[in-house]
């Protein structure tokens, strides 16, 4: 792959602050006018030493001379391109006619392997470029988000009264561990008594209908009774059986109904009673939730993931939940909401938590460390200032020598407060530019103006 190299002068590396313009009189010699042009050089991309645009300064970048000479744009006397020679054409300000250095960068500008090289090792130091080694992404991933421990919604039961009545006895108090089918309370209900009586009546009619059917069948076998009488008996038996089935279903919803109409309310799941919203003697109705039962061994951790961090969070990503006085617990994101809360700009994520040891409490606030998504092999963590945006690409600059950096495209997996997890052609241990990486980006953009200002090898 071809690699473009960009040379920097020490003055450009220092990004000198703008000086006040000191215009030389028109009668001054050409050398004075060049010095005057150099005095206005600043961080806007001008070469402070020669008074031309740094990107096309042939004095600092001798490799550009053949390019301009091949185009017939060359001032032999002064050694600059004729079209913007600062001595022959001071009105041009040392800039080519089509200066696109400030144009919006295009996606193709982020050329993989482009190298930015300072003229000397000292220049890199003066420019303030610092680099830190990339490190393999750890389990924490550098992204900390708040979370809340909540009950597993599939293991929560809110137990209502089955029929209106008076709470006669409370059997399970708050904190009681119950199994499926254990008694919670006893409720005296006239409606339950009526349902029980209806069942008993239906069962009596069923017995009578079955006996009548058996008698008619025997008579029909002896050719004493007609076929029509047998059909009528069969129909009455079917109706009685259907009525009994309906009455049993009605009583079955109520549970165990005693002779006085009292029925027992039972636990539908195994767990712990965490709420009792009733008292003995209270009139209760089916819409009233009398008991709440949860299984504390199976919980959820609900996370609030900021919008800016959603890039690397998907179902299947790992998350480490901190525990007091114990190592963090590794979980897996099972669900990530497709909706962002408009007020908090966060999306809800959920991970299942098996807590047989009882380390967590419902509604407890926890800190969770998110890692990159499953399958994000080769992810490394770099400094927060290392990643720059060029066109449609995120890039970093990897040090290839004391004064040389190479552009590498990366994919941002996750962003933290002080570091960014990326994946791409960057290995753990490689030095990546952090402070000053923006200066390297600007030099790459200057190299994309299409005027032959890059040396390609």
Number of strands: 26
- End-to-end span in angstroms? 9 Å
- The residue-averaged pLDDT reads 78
User: Tell me about the biggest sheet?
Assistant: 9 strands, mixed
Helix run count: 7
- Outline, from the CA principal axes? elongated
Poorly predicted runs of 5 or more residues: 1-43, 98-109, 372-377, 449-457
What share of the residues lie within helices? 10-25%
Rg from alpha-carbon coordinates: 41 Å
Strand share of the residues? Answer: 25-35%
What structural category arises from helix and sheet content? alpha+beta
Tell me what you see in this structure.
With 457 residues, the protein is α+β, with helices and mostly antiparallel strands. A hairpin with a 4-residue loop joins β10 and β11 (262-266). The longest helix has 32 residues, at 190-221. The protein contains 7 helices and 26 strands. It starts with a strand and ends with a strand. The strands form 5 sheets. Strands 1, 2, 4, 20, 21, 22, 23, 24 and 26 form a 9-stranded mixed beta sheet that branches. Strands 5-15-18-17-16-19 form a 6-stranded antiparallel β-barrel. The model is unreliable at 1-43, 98-109, 372-377 and 449-457 (pLDDT under 50). It has helices spanning 10-14, 30-39, 65-70, 121-126, 190-221, 227-254, 437-446, and strands at residues 4-8, 115-118, 131-133, 135-136, 143-151, 156-160, 165-170, 177-178, 183-188, 256-257, 262-266, 271-276, 283-284, 289-294, 298-306, 318-323, 326-340, 346-354, 365-370, 379-383, 388-390, 393-401, 404-415, 419-424, 431-433, 455-456. Helix content is 21%, strand content 32%.
